[in-house]
Amino acid sequence: MNQNFDTYYSYLFEEDLLNEIKEKGVFKKFSADTNIIEIGDYIKSMPLLINGAIKILREDENGDELVLYYLEKGDTCAMTLSCCMGETKSKIRAVAENDVELILVPKNNMNSWLSKYTSWQSFILQSYHNRMDELLEAIDTIAFLKMDDRLFKYLKDKAMVTNNDVITTTHKRISDDLHTSRVVVSRILKKLENEKKIKLYRNNIRVLEL
Fold it and tell me: What is residue 171's three-state secondary structure?
């Protein structure tokens, strides 16, 4: 764990902070498709992702979900910091896209480090900036892209965060993530295959254009 942690965070944090994170943080593993954070939870720690990818979703009043963005190795979810500091309930759901390893930083420590370590403060501010950019991109995607383009972008994003051009999924899961119907997804996937952008297999999709 320490080696992977150092690989993705040593260039961000000074040695004293790295040692404190290892001492105070709690190492956790989550299997693929496991809910890591649930909507309505009170969050008492912030995740630092070491391995795998995490999908961040919103849910409407009918229980339908929409993918907002993904977290990769070396990332954190800035929304959890807001919930911790404001002691408010989570408005997002975080789901392990594949097998995930992370360190949970307790609330008390992440608050005190903001004044103690400039590198931690910079990391948090940059995380806010990155997540805001991704939220704006998600809004632009929904507002301005046709469903064909949205679906292809979704597949490319998924392939990039998992570092694998073969995606194991179902048409139903894609339709849930994009908040559309399975019939529409199946039609567009066949169209993308005819355009040689993807190759369809049983429960697998290979992205040919990245």
Answer: helix
Is 123 in contact with 13 (CB distance < 8 Å)? yes
What's the full length of the chain, in residues? 210
> Looking at this protein, which amino acid is placed at residue 15?
E
Amino acid at residue number 68: L
CA distance linking residue 37 with residue 91, whole number of Å: 10
**CB atoms < 10 A from the CB of 39, how many?**
15
CA dihedral 133, 134, 139, 144 (to 10 degrees): 90
Per-residue pLDDT tens, the chain, 210 aa: give them.
567 788 888 888 999 999 999 999 999 999 999 999 888 888 888 889 999 999 888 887 777 788 888 888 888 877 777 776 666 788 888 999 999 999 998 888 888 898 899 999 999 888 888 888 888 888 888 877 889 999 999 999 889 888 889 999 899 989 988 888 899 999 999 999 999 999 999 889 999 887
Scan for tokens 């229980």, then name that residue. Answer: 63
The rounded distance, in Å, linking the Cα atoms of 103 and 22 is 8
Q: What is the token pair recorded at 31?
A: 């299997």
Torsion angle of C-alpha atoms 31, 32, 33, 34, degrees rounded to 10 = 20
Q: In the numeric block, which tokens belong to residue 53?
A: 């990818």
Residue 105 bridge partners (DSSP):
46
